[in-house]
Design goal:
Largest sheet: 5 strands, mixed
Strand content: 5-15%
Helix content: 55-70%
Number of domains: 4
Number of strands: 7
Length: 479
């Protein structure tokens, strides 16, 4: 039999030789590194000044490990311990879903961020597995990066792969391609029953882009927002605009970029900031347009003022705030970490109802200008015929595009998720005799091999489903 000491790793044996003072210092240094980089998410430089501060306060940390190089070593050690915890939890679960998304670092290298989702004992878990550099942004490169993130110390990658039942990613063809996409590699190399789950929030973004493709007023508003943002990137123009806000006693509202990682949110913020700072923008641009010596800024300012005083553009900007606010609420709900597929049905239905209402009557923001020829004291030129025609087309197109982007949720295996939504259950047991039977059969048929491999008695599943319904209705009466 091995002695107790033989069970320790070389690192543990080395730690045993350290005297208590050094061990106490390391414990404090680890804590500083954890707070500096993980808790407050600061740069490695924060670790050095925090160590310096601890020294000024009389804490003896010593000079040896109070540098960024040591901090990096501490972070690697912390990461290894946390990753071991994830491995231990994964070992106790039967099914999991892998989620990934691409990101480019400051050096321009493409990386893949990988997460794992699973439920155990009724509790939902989501863990970050790593940011892995990809050889290329192709399906094979992404798949290889995901597999690399599944390498653990105790369990083989193949053991984790057997538990995968779904892959979640954005709607890019590199992920969704049925022949050569990432999901095709998952299904071909691991299990054909693995589901492709497209990012719900990304569907909203794509639906909005689809609906706005052939809407001239939308293009005009986006172009105006983008040009104004670039115009005020100049330190001189930004400083002058800030002074105008102070003179008019308005809260400073800097023009923001239209695009971004959260496109719906960035678009909404950009339009709101333009309308919020409208008076100051027009005032400052009017001053710039009168300065003869500045030919380039002057011509831009004249063009901006013309667009800012266009009734169609201003009306459509208010209309966009109403529409995108509805989409932004949906997007936020879909991004909730503990959200489930079955909830999307209700959330989308509510969104479509609110959008149709905007097609029938003016929204809250549009009503502010609907019956006026001025906005913030500035006269508007032109008429609203262009806005009226295009806004009606936008609502119709947006509803259609969203329905098309989410149509897979109402058919196939995803439609079976309504079993988890108690709001979809019949109110009484008499009406629930056959409820969910078809959904259960879809699930059992689709995951037949996976469930059998995990020892699930498929023949007994239908009987247990009936027993579960009876137990719930007997206990609660009505659901």
């Amino acid at each position: 039999m091995k002695s107790h000491n033989a069970e320790f790793s070389p690192a543990e044996k080395s730690l045993q030789t350290l005297n208590s003072a050094v061990f106490e210092r390391l414990e404090k240094l680890f804590r500083v590194a954890y707070i500096a980089l993980l808790k407050i998410q600061g740069p490695f430089l924060d670790y050095e000044w925090m160590c310096c501060l601890e020294g000024k306060l009389g804490v003896d940390l010593g000079p040896t490990y109070s540098n960024r190089t040591s901090c990096k070593e501490f972070m690697v050690s912390i990461a290894e311990v946390e990753r071991q915890k994830i491995e231990d939890e994964l070992a106790q679960t039967n099914y999991c879903t892998i989620m990934s998304d691409g990101s480019t670092d400051v050096s321009g290298v493409e990386n893949e961020g990988v997460y794992v989702h699973f439920a155990r004992q009724g509790a939902y878990h989501c863990y970050f597995l790593g940011m892995v550099e990809t050889e290329c942004a192709s399906a094979s490169g992404i798949y290889s990066a995901i597999m690399e993130s599944l390498h653990f110390n105790k369990h083989l990658t193949e053991e984790i792969q057997e538990n995968i039942v779904g892959f979640a990613g954005d709607g890019a063809s590199v992920n969704t391609g049925k022949l050569n996409g990432v999901i095709a590699l998952f299904q071909g190399r691991i299990n054909p029953s693995i589901l492709m789950i497209q990012c719900m929030a990304h569907r909203v973004e794509l639906g909005l882009k689809d609906a706005m493709k052939n809407v001239p007023l939308f293009s005009k508003v986006v172009e105006l927002l983008d040009d104004i943002f670039k115009f005020y990137k100049s330190a001189k123009q930004k400083s002058e605009l800030k002074s105008v806000f102070e003179t008019l006693k308005l809260q400073f509202s800097m023009p923001t970029r239209v695009g971004g990682t959260r496109w719906v949110g960035h678009m909404l913020l950009a339009v709101k900031n333009m309308l919020k700072g409208y008076r100051a923008l027009v005032f400052h641009l009017s001053k710039v347009s009168q300065i003869r010596s500045q030919s380039a800024p002057q011509s831009k300012a004249i063009n901006f003022i013309k667009k800012l005083k266009s009734k169609s553009i201003i009306f459509f900007a208010h209309f966009l705030v109403d529409v995108i606010s509805v989409l932004a609420r949906l997007s936020k709900q879909l991004q909730e970490r503990k959200g489930c597929v079955f909830q999307v049905h209700r959330q989308l239905e509510t969104t479509l109802i609110n959008l149709n209402k905007l097609g029938e009557r003016d929204g809250f923001e549009l009503r502010k200008v609907a019956s006026s020829d001025t906005f913030e004291g500035e006269g508007l030129t032109g008429n609203t015929s262009e806005h009226d025609a295009q806004s009606a087309r936008v609502i119709k197109g947006l509803v259609s595009c969203l329905q098309r982007r989410f149509d897979d949720l109402d058919k196939g295996i995803f439609s079976a998720t309504k079993l988890a939504d108690l709001n979809s259950w019949p109110t009484s047991s008499e009406d629930a005799k056959d409820f969910g039977d078809d959904c259960l059969m879809k699930l059992l048929d689709h995951f037949h091999d996976t469930l059998e491999r995990k020892g699930v008695d498929l023949a007994a599943a239908e009987e247990e489903w009936t027993a579960l319904k009876q137990a719930l209705y007997k206990r609660f009466g009505r659901i």
